[in-house]
UniProtKB/TrEMBL annotation:
Its EC number is 1.3.1.21. It is an enzyme of class 1 (oxidoreductase). The keyword Heme does not apply. GO terms for cellular component: membrane. It comes from Physcomitrium patens (Spreading-leaved earth moss). This is 7-dehydrocholesterol reductase. The lineage of its organism: Eukaryota, Viridiplantae, Streptophyta, Embryophyta, Bryophyta. PANTHER family: 7-DEHYDROCHOLESTEROL REDUCTASE (PTHR21257:SF38), DELTA(14)-STEROL REDUCTASE (PTHR21257). Keywords: Cholesterol biosynthesis, Cholesterol metabolism, Lipid biosynthesis, Lipid metabolism, Membrane, NADP, Oxidoreductase, Steroid biosynthesis, Steroid metabolism, Sterol biosynthesis, Sterol metabolism, Transmembrane, Transmembrane helix. The chain crosses the membrane at residues 58-77, 147-166, 178-201, 242-260.
Amino acid sequence: MKSVMIKPVKARGRALERTLEPRRKRTQSSKRSGSRNPKHHDRFDQSSYLSSSKAVKIVSMLAMMICSPFFIVFMWYTMVRADGSVEKACRHFFQFGIRGIKDVWPFPSQRACKLVGAFVLFEAILQALLPGERVMGPSTPVGNRPLYTRNGIPCFLITLGVYYLLWRERLFNPAMVYDIIGEIYSVLICATYITTTLLYVKGHMAPCSSDWGSSGNVLGDFFWGMELCPRLSSVFDIKVFMNYRLGIMGWAILVISFAIKQLGGL
């Protein structure tokens, strides 16, 4: 099939030629590649992994996955142990090296695991059981429209209300969250890698919709994910749960806990 040539356009003394390749040609080449369903792979740039920048992409992904935990611990140590002084924190790590990292690393504790586990379970119950209007999300590249339950605001208000009641009835002291925040970060770091691994396996073995695909690179699939909207059921969206139920709700809880700690526990 012939390409459609556009008349060259001069820009700064140079002629620029643009070639329009018909969409049909790209579709036919995808079918000849023998993929299970070409549409599943539309959101992945397969050729990018065969280009000269493959090494750069791999190094970038590895750097983010390996360095992120160290950056989190560095920021925690700077704020909690080094009085907010980046210079003081850097001087400590440069002076003691690997030993300095090992000495200050906040390992997971039983208290931190219980707090994180209770919060995750509570938010999961709210997302799954709290009623709300059923709304359709935007259309995906494949043409699917995921279904959501609009109960975010009630979840947020109930979360804050229950947290306040626990504090008011002296069943829980929010200031403790600040005291063991390093251990909580460590628990979340471990949980992140475990959850990502489970989602990677799920994407391979049990994708929930046609919005899935593989880049042909194990590290790329692990880093980017294989499903656009991973779900455990028709209404329990994992992405919504991670970003909004745990992320946004947890953000508010942390702010309140730190404020109470700063005010002396009240």
